[in-house]
Amino acid sequence: MNAVFKRELKAYFVTPLGYVFIGVYLIFSGAFFYLFTLTSPTPTPGTGVADFTPMFSLMFFVLMITVPLLTMRLFADEKRSKTDQLLLTAPISLFGLVAAKFAAAYTIFLISTAVMPIYGIVLSNFTEVSRRAIAGSMAGLLMLGAVYTAAGLLVSSLTENQMIAAIVSVFANVGFLFSSIAAPYVGIGFLADALRSLSLLERYDRFTIGLFELENALFFISITVVLLFLCVRVLERRRWA
């Protein structure tokens, strides 16, 4: 497992992919911080402290598109180059294999996200900053990244084409977004409630305003675990095919 993790992590820096993701992440997060927080540190209504909500809310949409770039090659490239059978027959459990690849992609995401608390430190020199709001937003961002990474990993295990994996992953992420938008138009009550409950955006927005709710945290963790489990099942079927 450790060998697979190191190999995948190294691959992100041998190719431009890791640098591109980190660069795009920093460009967008920095631009959002400058435009919506630093140059216009509008206090959160009723609190008198700086509002980080716009920056973190917009990062939701950036990650929806960029995280699939991290995961598109993880299994698709193995299948294309015919090295997947070597992995599937290696002395490592399928769960360990999936976990190692997930950890490698998520590590790149963590490296990129490490800059976010620095923005709060910078802004604290200009106005009052809510540590609770930043902590909640960071927690939401980390869990959102885990869901997107797991979803991309699952899609990558289903195809040998990296571009198809990336595109389908983006559409899957968009599906989580539009579940809440479609809910009001569904005439069946329980189905509308089910669609609304699957919305990542509504749950993520709760974190961006500093509300750390156990229910929402468990939702993100559960979705991540389910997606990784499905990925293991896909590989299991391929192993015995």
Which helices and strands occur, and which strands form pairs?
Layout: H1 2-14, H2 17-38, H3 53-71, H4 76-80, H5 84-88, H6 94-113, H7 116-123, H8 131-156, H9 162-182, H10 189-197, H11 200-208, H12 214-239
Helix pairs in contact: 1-6, 2-3, 2-6, 3-8, 3-9, 3-11, 6-8, 6-12, 8-9, 8-11, 8-12, 9-10
Description:
The protein is mainly α. It has one domain (2-239). The chain is built from twelve helices and no strands. The protein has helices at 2-14, 17-38, 53-71, 76-80, 84-88, 94-113, 116-123, 131-156, 162-182, 189-197, 200-208, 214-239. Helix 3 (53-71) runs parallel beside helix 8 (131-156) and helix 9 crosses helix 10. The two termini are 23 Å apart.
Order of helices and strands: HHHHHHHHHHHH
> Tell me, what's the shape?
globular
Please tally the β strands and state the result: 0
- Strand-pairing-aware structural class: mainly alpha
Uncertain parts: none
Strand content: under 5%
The total of helices stands at 12
The average pLDDT score comes to 86
Alpha carbon gap, first and last residue: 23 Å
Radius of gyration: 19 Å
Number of domains: 1
**What can be said about the biggest beta sheet?**
none
The gist of it:
By secondary structure, the protein is mainly alpha-helical. The protein is built from twelve helices and no strands. It has one domain (2-239).
Supply the key terms:
241 residues; 0% strand; 12 helices; single chain; mainly alpha; globular
